[in-house]
Design a protein that fits this description.
Helices cover about 40% and strands about 20% of the residues. α1 runs antiparallel to α2 and α4 packs antiparallel against α5. By secondary structure, it is of the alpha+beta class. It has one domain.
């Protein structure tokens, strides 16, 4: 590893090994595609902990690849409850599942066992500590409660933070609502205007490019710049840029 501006950056060969091992997990049922930019950030050493929830534990083969890359993996049983739209709540698995709950598995991945264990302990007890370990900014961590209150209408809450109908795309979490890849991964930005969230989006795409994953990086930018409008149910729907209700996005530096 080398030190760069106070951040530990992985050498490219090690980082690519980690990225490819982690990308195999995104293909598992239930894994969110928006995790891709976070994988890039984690692989290059700019994210302390990576978390993903899948329908069932992966087979031993991908886990061996992660451990061969020097990573610690913690596997936690969880339950999810669908709220509406693209919003579900997570909880530690209890002995008796409620009728509206579904079983799942959480993978906590870190380079140091201490960080993986700290996150596993904080995930359902202290959202601030958990958010910090995921590398999220404090302002966005505090906004999570607002999104919880909005539930399935969270896109409407986020869209209201845009100062115009032409928005910087780097913090566009709305893409995840219609099935695209969000540049900020699983982060819910406090605002589409949040500088810290925009930096995460830009760095995530930059990490993918550095890892040689140019097609994935281009796909993230394409999804992030897809115009949307908010429908009556509060969901983000892809539309043509000429749609009178469209919220349009631009990626800095792109024509």
């Amino acid at each position: 590893m080398i030190e760069h501006t106070g951040i530990v950056v992985r050498r490219d060969r090690d980082a690519r090994q980690i990225a490819h091992a982690l990308l195999s997990l995104v293909k598992m049922p239930g894994a969110p595609p928006s995790l891709v930019p976070e994988i890039g950030l984690f692989a290059v050493g700019r994210k302390p902990v990576l978390r993903l929830v899948v329908d069932s534990f992966p087979t031993r083969t991908p886990l061996r690849r992660l451990m061969a890359a020097g990573l610690t993996v913690r596997q936690l049983p969880v339950s999810s409850r669908y709220v509406g739209g693209s919003w579900s709540t997570l909880a530690a698995m209890s002995t008796d599942l409620r009728a509206d709950e579904s079983p799942g598995e959480m993978l906590v991945i870190a380079r140091r066992a201490l960080l993986a264990d700290r996150f596993a302990e904080a995930e359902f007890s202290d959202h601030r500590v958990a958010g910090e370990l995921l590398g999220y900014p404090q302002c966005c961590i505090e906004a999570v409660r607002d999104y919880e209150a909005a539930g399935g209408r969270w896109p409407q809450r986020l869209a209201r933070t845009a100062s115009s109908t032409s928005v910087d795309a780097r913090a566009n979490r709305l893409a995840a609502d219609w099935g695209g890849i969000s540049p900020v991964g699983e982060l819910f930005p406090c605002s589409l205007e949040c500088p810290a969230a925009r930096a995460i989006g830009e760095n995530g795409v930059g990490a993918l490019r550095r890892l040689g994953l140019h097609r994935l990086a281009a796909e993230v930018v394409q999804h992030a710049t897809t115009p949307v409008r908010i429908d009556p149910e509060g969901r983000a729907v892809p539309v043509h840029a000429a749609d009178p209700g469209a919220l349009r996005f631009r990626w800095p530096g792109d024509n």
